Protein 1
Amino acid sequence: MAFGLPVLGTDAGGTLEIVEHNVTGLVHPTGRPGNAVLAQNLRFLLENRSAREQMGLEGRKKVQRMYLKQHMYKRFVEVIVRCMRSK
C-alpha cells in the first residue's frame, strides 16, 4: 500500500485489519479454497486498470493517514502513558 499498489492478502490474521476488501486491495480465503479466489482477484486487477489505480490510491492514503513513523510513534507514546497511569 505504501507504494500506491493494491494489496492481495488472505482473510486471516492481521491482514483484515489493514486491507479493506475492494477499497485498498482484495482478500481471499486461506489454504486450498483460496486458490481459485486468489486467481480471480489477480485476473480482476490485471484486467481493470481503473480499479487497480483506485485501490492503490486509497491504500496510499491509508498508509499516510495511519502507518507512517510519526503516527506509530504517537501511538507508542499513548500506550506507554496509559501503562504508566494504570500502575
Protein 2
Amino acid sequence: MDLHITGDSAADQLLSNDAFALLVGMLLDQQVTMESAFAGPEKIRTRIGSMAPAAIAEYDPAGFVEVFKERPAVHRFPGSMAGRVQALAETIQRDWDGDAAAIWTRDDPDGREVLRRLKELPGFGEQKAKIFLALLGKQRGLQAEGWREAAGAYGQQNAYLSVADIVDQESLKKVRASKQAAKAAAKAPKT
C-alpha cells in the first residue's frame, strides 16, 4: 500500500519504499505541517544522493545543516533537526545494522516491544512513537500482536488523530480538524 501524505509523488514513493525515510519523516513532524515534514526525506535524498543511514550518519555535520537550510528548507529549525536526523541515522546504523525496518520485524516483536524500541530512538517520545506504531499498523502492514493497544488512541480505527490516518485529501481534512479541536481544547480556560 502506497502512502499519500505529502502531495508530492516522489516524496510519497520514497516514504512507501524506504523505512528509514519514513522514520525521518516522523522525526521531522514537529512545528511544521505534516506534508512538509514527510517531504523532508525526499529533499535530503535529492541533495545528498542517498537516504541510507550510513551515508547520513557519516555526512559532515556542518554540511548537513547546510543541506537542511537549502531552499526549500528541509525544516524550519535546520540546525537542531539536522542533528536529530544524524543522531537517528547513527542509531539505526549502530543498533539495527542500518535496517530501520528491523525495529518492527527483528525477532517478531509484539506491539508493546515495537513501541519500546521506537521510544529508544533519538527524538521519539511516547506520543511520536505511538503515532508511528499506528502508522505501521494502519498503512504499512504491521501485524505485531497488540499493536493497536500499544498505539493507544492513535491505533483506533477511523480515529483521524494523526498522520497514521491520512490516506487521501478527505482523511487529511479530518485529521486537521481533530488537531485543531485538540489545540482549541488545550487553550480553553480550565473550569
